[in-house]
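Dear support,

I submitted the protein below through the web form. The confirmation email said the job was done, but the results page showed an empty box. After a refresh the structure appeared. I'm attaching both so you can tell me whether what I see now is the final result or a partial one.
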Amino acid sequence: LPGWGHWHRGARLKGGILAFLGAGTLAGSMYYLAYTRTLEKRYLSRNDPGEIEPAYQDYNAAYQKRNALLAGYALVWIYSQLDLLYFSRMDLQEKSAVRLQPYLLPHQYVALGMIIRF
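What the results page shows now:
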């Protein structure tokens, strides 16, 4: 879900906004996926020439809304990923989750430890 990475790293407002936009566009997409399928079946079952055009217009409008919502979700997701990877880079380096640390052990042994912070 877009915004989860921002939320996890402490950018609660940006994360909340992205999560809201992502959830809204995804929920709308799911609704219009089902609704478009219903309207398509209704359109294809029409035999009367007077009913075909209105049924097609309803189906086409739902189809366009479905595609716009799917594109909206994709844009929110892409923005979220790009923002985390490129524009919020400083935050990521300051809160690095993985750190390697060398240790000196007795008898002149050297060890390398890995610290993973969640």
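Response: this is the final, complete result; the empty box was a page-load delay. Residues 99 and 115 are 5 Å apart (CA to CA).
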